[in-house]
Amino acid sequence: MTGKKSAASKAKPGQTQADCYHDSERLLKTYRDVRWNLKLSMEYHRQDFETEYGMSITEYLDDVYAAGIEFAGTKLEHHANSIKRTAEMLKLIDTAAHLIRENNSEGEALYWILYYTYFSPLKLRDVDEIIERVQMHIPYVTKDTYYRHRKKAIKIFSSVLWGFTTKSEIDVLDAFV
Fold first, then answer.
1. pLDDT (tens digit, 9 = 90+) per residue, 80-94?
2. If both were cysteines, with which of 41, 161, 165, 169 could 96 make a disulfide (CB 3.0 to 4.6 Å apart)?
3. Which tens digit of pLDDT belongs to each residue from 8-46?
4. Up-side HSE of residue 118: CA atoms within 13 Å toward CB?
5. What are the sequence ranges of the domains in the chain?
6. Which residues contact 9 (CB under 8 A, 6 or more apart)?
7. What is the pLDDT confidence band of residue 124, given thresholds at 50, 70 and 90?
8. CA dist 154 → 25, 65, 78, 161 (Å)
9. Other C-beta atoms within 10 Å of 169: how many?
10. In sequence order, which residues have a C-beta less than 8 Å from that of residue 176 and are 6 or more positions away?
11. Which of 141, 121, 123, 122 is nearest to 131 (CA)?
């Protein structure tokens, strides 16, 4: 155990675990891999489908819809829904990052720190390389400043992202998805 209180112990009366605790830093650390895996999965399924059916998924779906056939409960529907859910979550993450950039007084700096730390397609070697890249957009970033701003960026990112995804904000979630 890391010494942190468990999610259950942080819950207020009447509040469920899912509503009271989210590990945003862990989510951010997996972002790059999830995006990569989504691209691979989409390409794999595209190739697999074209090999099996001799046409693109779009052509197939056009034919299915024109014939009035439903594919509910099929393997194709399962894969499509899985890819869709992952893509929607990635879109929410991207939207939260851009909202911080556009609306927070320190948004530009926080955005670039999040971008080079978690979102950029290539994972940078170390903090010094991240700082070097951030300095192309925001001058005078030191290691201390980087760590302070990263912590702040994660906290703000968390409040923006999970604010969209709570039950009380479902309309906002629907608007972005």
1. 778 888 888 889 899
2. 161
3. 344 445 444 444 347 889 989 999 998 998 888 888 888
4. 22
5. 25-176
6. none
7. very high
8. 7, 44, 33, 10
9. 13
10. 91, 92, 95, 164
11. 141
